Amino acid sequence: MRERRIYLLDPRRYRPEVIAVAFAKTSRSPEPFDVIAESLSEEGASQFHEKWVVGYGHASVAEHAVLHIAFENISRLAAEAIEGVRLASFTEKSTRFQILDRESFYVPPEIAASPFRDAYRVVVEQLFETYHTALEPVRRVVEAWFPRRPEESEKAYRTRLRIRAMDVCRYLLPTATLTNIGMTVNARALEHGLRKWLSHPLEEVREIARTVKAVALQEVPTLLKYAEPNAYLQNSAARLQEWAIALPEDSIPLDGVRLVSWDPEAEARLIAACLYRFRAVSFEAALAWARGIRPEDRRRILEDALGGRSPFDVPVRELEHIVYTFDCLMDEGAYYDLKRHRMMTQTPQALTTAYGYAIPRAMEEAGMGARYRAAVEAAMALWEAMRPTVGEAAAYVLPNAVYRRVLMTMNLREAYHLCRLRGGPNGHFAYRYIAMRIYEAIRAVHPTLAAYMGCEDYPSSEEIAARFGGVAHRRQMQAA
Predict the structure, then answer these.
(1) How is the chain split into domains, by residue range?
(2) What pLDDT, on a 0 to 100 scale, did the predictor assign at position 475?
(3) Four-way CATH pick for 257-349+404-473: 3.90.480.10, 1.20.1050.10, 3.30.70.260, 3.30.1360.170
(4) Given this model, what pLDDT does residue 470 score?
(5) What's the pLDDT score for residue 89?
(6) Is there a contact between 209 and 198 (Cβ–Cβ < 8 Å)?
(7) CB under 8 Å to 158, separation ≥6 — which residues?
(8) Residue 86 has pLDDT above 60, yes or no
(9) pLDDT reading at 398 higher than 70
């Protein structure tokens, strides 16, 4: 019997394109991977990719070429586009753990070349100045809210208070705020990302894309060289935008989360999918059987499928057959965190002033309410003035406080993950509110399935909003 071997192909020894070819050749070669890799030159690897990946469309080969890309000092608005690549891993500079200096913002070329250049800098500097001024008064407020725990060291307590204060003050940070991102991605997903970024309406994103392509070509010279702007993406967006003008404006949403689509037969569908694995039967037959069983048997099967999990156990994959769609209203800061859940499908509306903005309770109690409102409303007024001239680049001035509407479609397995993670006590109150509203909406239509989400001990969305959320300004909306 041949010896089992499991090992790494050392990226310090083999370039990403060589590793990709070594894995690809195993379909036709009996040689071990390391032997194949040793036989390859970079030129040979390039020729292979030119023929099979580019010429014949075997793009899956490019998934074996993995790159680690560092982005430094890009705007958070650009980061939204970069982090839209679903099949990639990201780690980003946090506004919860780092206090940003007053010059940590980007001036986009669209605004720099416009009559609004000076006004833009004044307004963004006002947002940052208010952010810094508010940190200490807000810290004193949260200190009164969160007493020191008996087992907590003084250092740990001060760190916790600092994080809580920054959670509040980050509402003032504009999307122009600079950030750093570490990205791990394979060449196939990166090529897809580059096509989107090169077709993006913001010049900053296009500039970033050109730089990423140039840097990545040093490691994967063949796999990315044909990544170019995509006319389909650009033209379809422009045409759909014209159609959207015909939509009638509806009333301002009064709720942070609305469940707009779900499967009334979710329990039966989940049971049928779970049992389908273990029996030679069609799904239609399994579903018909699940529809007809006694309620107590249904509960027992669901308990066998979902019960007994620890907080670290991932639930059965069959939960992915159950799908929900939510129309959500949240502040930009909450969306910036929730967008990382890329297993769901998200359709965010463009940033706008139409829905108003949130004023956290702690900001008012710190005596900073008037300055906060002045800074945010100055940014919103400038957005309204700039929008006809600079288009989407006007969004750079809008802070995390502004409300944004997002359509989110997720399967139940993702909902389990999102609600348990984001609804927890250590999270930011804005996305905790959204997570708990999602949980409560699922519980209202599928109480048995929601009972296994692990959120029953969390504070309700109403309690979170009452303690932290404050008020929404300019529109009669509940704060998220």
Answers:
(1) 1-64, 65-95+177-247, 113-174+361-396, 257-349+404-473
(2) 40
(3) 3.30.1360.170
(4) 63
(5) 93
(6) yes
(7) none
(8) yes
(9) yes
In the prediction, which pLDDT does 471 show?
61
How far apart CA 241 and CA 218 sit, in angstroms, is: 38
CA distances from 107 to 71, 114, 190, 440 (A): 17, 11, 26, 41
Q: Has this prediction a pTM greater than 0.85?
A: yes
* CA 14 to mean position of chain CA atoms: 33
Answer CATH for 65-95+177-247 from 2.40.50.140, 3.30.70.3180, 3.40.50.300, 3.90.550.10: 3.30.70.3180
Question: Beta partners for 183?
Answer: 69, 90
Q: 323-331 and 345-348 as β-strands: parallel, antiparallel, unpaired? A: unpaired
Nearest by Cα to 333 from 118, 94, 14 = 94
Using one digit for the tens of pLDDT, what is the confidence trace for 275-308? 999 999 999 999 999 999 999 999 999 999 999 9
List the beta strands (DSSP E) in 193-283. 257-261
Burial tier of 364 (Cβ tally within 10 Å: 0-12, 13-18, 19+): middle
Q: What is the residue-averaged pLDDT of the chain?
A: 91
Alpha carbon distance 198, 189 (integer Å): 14
- pLDDT of 23: 82
Q: How far apart are CA 368 and CA 462, in angstroms?
A: 24
Single-letter code of the amino acid located at 192: H
pLDDT (0 to 100) of residue 58: 57
**Which percentage of the chain shows pLDDT scores above 90?**
76
- Residue-wise pLDDT for 8-25, tens only, equals 888 888 888 888 888 887
Q: pLDDT band at residue 52, thresholds of 50, 70 and 90?
A: low
Q: Is the pLDDT of residue 95 over 80?
A: yes
Instruction: Using the Cα atoms of residue 286, residue 292, residue 298 and residue 304 in order, give the sign of their dihedral.
Output: negative
Contacts of 370-377 spanning 24+ positions with Cβ under 8 A:
371/130, 371/133, 371/134, 372/130, 372/134, 372/171, 372/172, 373/473, 374/126, 374/130, 375/123, 375/126, 375/127, 375/129, 375/130, 375/172, 375/399, 376/127, 376/171, 376/172, 376/401, 376/402, 376/473
- Of 184, 86, 67, 170, the C-alpha closest to 128 is 170
DSSP 379-409: HHHHHHHHHHHHGGGGGGG-BTTBEEEEEEE
